[in-house]
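Person: Please work through this fold.
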Amino acid sequence: MDISLEKVMDNAKKWLSSSFDADTKKEVQDLINNNPEELKERFYKDLEFGTGGMRGVMGVGTNRINKYTLGKNTQGLSNYLKKVYPEAAHKVAIAYDCRHNSNTLAKVVADVLSANGITVYLFSELRPTPELSFAVKYLDCQCGIVLTASHNPPEYNGYKVYWTDGGQIVPPQDGEIINEINSLDFTDINFNSNESLIKFIDKDVDEAFINASLENGSFNAKGKDQFKIVFTSLHGTSITTVPEVLKRAGFDVHIVEEQAKPDGNFPTVQSPNPEEPEALTMALKMADEIDADMVVGTDPDCDRLGIAVRDLHGKMILLNGNQTMVMMTKFLLDQWKRKDQIKGNEFIASTIVSTPMMNELANAYGVEYKIGLTGFKWIAKMIKDHPEQPFIGGGEESFGFMVGDFVRDKDAVTATLLACEIAAEAKANKSSFYKDLLQAYVDYGFYKEKLISITKKGISGAEEIKKMMIDLREKPVQSIDGSKVLKIEDYSTSISYNLQSGVKESIQIPKSNVLIYYTEDGTKIAARPSGTEPKIKFYISVNKPLESIDDFEATQNELDSKIDRIIKELNFN
């Protein structure tokens, strides 16, 4: 990428004007004088407000999260709200997580909104992201904002925007808001807050959210008094809600106290990401010490959860997001079926990079399977676009799940409760969460997935990721592990191409930088640059029939070997 030094310098010098505070101007001048490379990283582009919001490293500069970049977003959003709802009493809910500066940045956002005559409902302390989604509808707001960077490293923060239905913004609102923001200059931001319009919220919304979680996630499972849970919040927001929800549902919960205090440094883990086994090390150790049945860990903003259960040999193992999603969806389908609530127009949902096993479940239970791009905003859009179809539940491979539609984003609070209900019920029935998963493989096919995530930081990293995607498109793979590629789906062009027949079909899903290969033997491989991190991700799915649980380990070894061969063959490193 050819970055003009002149352009960088022009961008930086604008931050020396009177519109910026003294500390900011001093830091920018120091970068100009002493650190041209860092100056380039911070000012070579504007940190993009994407289709869900903004996420990035905190610091001074146009390519950083700070009061000015977030202030500009909020000013644009304020202008947009007034255009779309000219006669309304404008109301916006704001929540924030445990990260450094989240509380002060949340107040900056509230200040800008109130300066524009908008009433703000600001949580008085940190809260889970799903509670913000709930609060938007509960408080009858047009919009919601949460300050979070999910499971990114400590130096990151972010800004996500929700619309009237409690889901993240989607077309056409996203593009219209982006255009409004891009039309502004930093001098257009109104930081002069109207404190009378800022209302602090806490217990009342908490109680309503907790009660809704219990109503949607509790199924009066048997054996709760004999079921032991270890829970860790990984220094995040879930400590405010999850233990209370589990306690009220009747569960015995043991909290990892060393990780219970919210802390943006995440001092006990390398990454506060429940997808990473290392993050649950302390919880797993406690589970073995007290002979617990299940471990649950949530990410900092409490929208993702990782669970560990005991395998056939009594060893605690971490399940992946596809496995927990399949089990939660199957359990919900069983509940609906038992109550004779499945009439044929209900639906479950997931994403294009998640396990194809979800489709097998939908077919088996006679419900529709809707599939969308990565991100729960697309599932929320499905619910909004199809009010005539009851939504049962759905998720994605990245450890997120949504139970019903009372929250319109992934919700680790209710999903944690649901996972515990499933496992307690299974144990009471002389089975286990793990055994029931293996039985699902016998019933619907053994699907095995693996995610390869490659980090490429900075300007050069972005170019490397771009080049990798270009190569995959211009030099398509013809076979994978000896199996012919039958079809390639390119979501950037919305074209599905059958390599055998030559037929091209249109993909009825919004455009995205995703490429998916399908082979004769049912292998599926997707490539997708991350929208929130400097990474490119490869999603591998292989499958094989499983005749019985006794055959599980041998069949799993076969599928693991196949995945290893694919990784080596396609040079995913």
In short: The longest helix spans residues 552-570.
